[in-house]
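SEVERITY: medium
COMPONENT: batch folding queue
REPORTER: lab tech (J.R.)

DESCRIPTION
The queue accepted two submissions in a row. Attaching both inputs and their returned structure tokens so the on-call engineer can compare them side by side.

ATTACHMENT 1
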Amino acid sequence: MSTQCDGCPACEPLRAQLADKDQEIARLVALARHDALTGVLNRRSLTEHVGEELQRSSRTGQPFCFAVIGVDQLKAVNTQFGNDTGDLVLQTIARESCLLLRTLDRFGRIDGDVFGIILPATWLHQGVLAMNRLSAFVAGFDWNTVTAGRTVTFSTGLTTNAPAETAENMVQRALKAMAEAKAEGGNRLVTLEQELPASLFAAMDD
């Protein structure tokens, strides 16, 4: 004997309430994993994806790159055009970056004017090419529609995974490289790889 209720009028409101709750739960989960302003992954989710990529790289032996891009002179943009325009700059960079990047890449907002990008199955020289292409793509956007008379660029820090790597270490290394790029004047790319332990070189000399 079946206990399933088919077409019972009294059950329809309950089904509707359950469906509404499921939608609300899905919305809250999405909010917890995505940046409210730009809609891309937030730092926590992005770092989790870096950890997953490290595990995949350990299994397959394929390297990958992690890049951090920081918008150049965003404070000056906010001063000149207002904070709403600054927010629009961030949204535009997020949108345009996602248009150019591969479907397997991951893009997220780390904090403020800083975004992170995971480039799976990518060697360092390939990562340099990809980030230079993205830099040119963003700089070539018609910024007159957002910041009239002012082109927006970003500075890039790029790194690759290393043995016994952790996700947070990789993020911090890319952030350090990005800071160096900004210190050099901005609108440029700096690569930084993890230093190999001295014991490794000693073993190679034996």
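ATTACHMENT 2
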Amino acid sequence: MTQIQNNLNWTAYARWIVGLIVLGMMLDGLDAQLLGLAIPSLIRDWGVTRGDLTPITAGSLVGMALGATFGGWFGDRVGRRTGLICSLLLFGLATGIASQVNGLVLFGVLRAFAGMGLGAALPNGTALIAEFTPLRHRSMGASIAMLSQPVGSMVAGVLAAVVLESAGWRTLFIIGGIAPLAVALLYWRALPESPAYLAGRDQQSVSASPGSLLTAELRRDTLLLWLACFMALLALYTMLSWGPAMLAAAGYPLGFAGRVVTTFSVGGIVGSLAVGVLCRKAGSRTAQAVIGVVGVAAAMVLCVLFSRGQPAQATVLVLMAGIGFSAAGSQATLYVLSTHFYPTWLRATGIGLMLGIGRLGAVASSWAGSASLDIGGPVAFFVLFAVAVSVATLACRLVSRPVRPADSSAGANPV
């Protein structure tokens, strides 16, 4: 398996395959953003409160946690390609059907199923990208995997700015349902299975299981990755789920939320790329230190500005780009660490369970984000973000086997 990875080249075909995978993961990012963008409209159209929607956001995130945990295991057992196709079908169907419902209960159930599909897409897509990427470029490959999500969120923000006020949230959900089904069909016809996975299936005598992640050799760093992912996703989903509602409550127009999501996502794209470059040049500890400092600084400036009144829209846009840089960059660091840390036969399971634990942080954001707004408005909201990013940064820096600059050429755990 090491030889297979070492012999990989960035041929046009390999880049085409990685591009295909990125396309599906972009749709994952788009669909994950839809509920947060729809919340202000749902409150208005259905006459519900923010608290009424909290169980729905939580249920969607619980679905993501389950999907990530079992989707990664499923991918290690039956193949990353099959796991990714099934995940697209699930969240595409659930999102499309949700566009036609009129009650909170059924809407919430469908969002939970969509969350399961969204969660399962990440470990399988990330493992595929890592295994189609030469070892010397694995850090950048993992960053590309993460990059696809903020790109998808940015597309959702652009769609919301154009469509939300004129056509409503249902149109957003229709688009979010049809696109994954089309990509699943494309994958069925054009996406191959990972060569490293196929070789490992023939050679590996040990079956992947969650318990394999907690052996003496892996336990310490696995637990640190889980803590970091929990806090990173608490920070990210606080913004994704409650950022538009926070801006609406602060008096900004609905269309502005779409623009903020776009700039947040642009910042996330830059942050994801920065992690790939920094990990290769300076290692994962330095990369996460830069990412963490930018996010905490931007959040603290926003705390000060909101404590004095309503900041100018241009100022909020710029600082939210910094928030996105940190939120997406923190996740990108974890993708880089986990793809280097876990061997091929355990990779999707390791990434999946890390993301599953992380999604519990996203679940916690459903209450923490809403509670912070109730307690202290935007100021408390950004303090929550700063604390979560600080803890994630510390945990990443404590990992005993970080990605070092030399690892980008040799691979920290290339088997």
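NOTES FROM REPORTER
Residues 292 and 393 are 6 Å apart (CA to CA).
No errors were logged for either attachment.
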